[in-house]
Amino acid sequence: MSDNKDSTAKKLLIITGPQGSGNHLFSRLLSLHPAVAGWEELLDKYWVPSDLEPFADYWVNPDLLLNDKFDNHQYHLANVSCPFMYDGVRYVPRILEVAERARSFGIDVEIAIIVRDQNINAEQQRRVRGSVTTSIAQDYYYNTLLSSDFPVHFLDHEAFFLHKEHYLQWVGKMLNFPVELDPAKINRFIDKDANHKYVKYVDEYWLDQEVWNGIQSKQARG
């Protein structure tokens, strides 16, 4: 478990990312700690539809969020992709309004945006949704979230797969949020890097010969 400062204030961490950037992955990882009220269903299933996420109704209608949602835990996690599907309809989630409503209840709110390789993210979106929607997310993040007065951080999809629990430990410290660091729990649904299926070996690249020529030239000079 990560070492986090004690705080009496209740906290809501909202994570979001373009569709296919790792919303389910980070929701599971950041819901594992017993002190966190997160997406509990994801702890036992590999995938759950986005409109069954505990905050799904609020992304469409923030006024439905009530103070008692935060009664039983100090730390809360909410997740939504941008855009996201709700009852078969595509929406841009009203993240800022949810954050403002939670803050009106005295909740400390922070937001984290998931980053994944843009080329792989685009291929994922084409495969699952038929079109690339990253620009929709970017417009919302840049013009709404990043211009708000809420702290906004970035979570790195590739950094997690490279460094696993070491990266999560850093994330927990950065966000002052409890994070589970047991590798067995972290890796329960992970058999390989999620980017693996999109990466193909490159037989030859134009720069290869330039590099090889440079090496041979240096060797010839002694």
Mind explaining what this structure looks like?
With 222 residues, this protein is α/β, with parallel strands linked by helices. The protein has 9 helices and 7 strands, in the order βαβαβββαβααβαααα. It has helices at residues 23-31, 56-60, 95-104, 118-129, 134-145, 157-163, 165-175, 183-186, 206-220; strands spanning 11-18, 36-37, 75-82, 84-86, 89-91, 108-115, 152-156. It has a 5-stranded parallel β-sheet. A two-stranded antiparallel sheet has the order 4-5. Helix 6 (157-163) packs across helix 7 (165-175). The longest helix is centred in the last third of the chain and has 15 residues, at 206-220. It is globular, with a radius of gyration of 20 Å. Residues 1-6 have low confidence and may be disordered.
> Which sequence of SSEs, written as H and E, runs from N to C?
EHEHEEEHEHHEHHHH
What class, by secondary structure content? alpha/beta
Question: What percentage of amino acids are in beta strands?
Answer: 15-25%
The whole-angstrom Rg is 20 Å
β-strand number: 7
Number of helices: 9
**Biggest β-sheet, characterized?**
5 strands, parallel
**In what order do the strands lie side by side in the largest sheet?**
2-3-1-6-7
Mean of pLDDT = 88
Task: Specify the helix fraction band.
Answer: 25-40%
Task: Give the N-to-C terminal Cα separation.
Answer: 53 Å
What is the structure about, briefly put?
Helix content is 38%, strand content 17%. The chain has helices at residues 23-31, 56-60, 95-104, 118-129, 134-145, 157-163, 165-175, 183-186, 206-220; strands at 11-18, 36-37, 75-82, 84-86, 89-91, 108-115, 152-156.
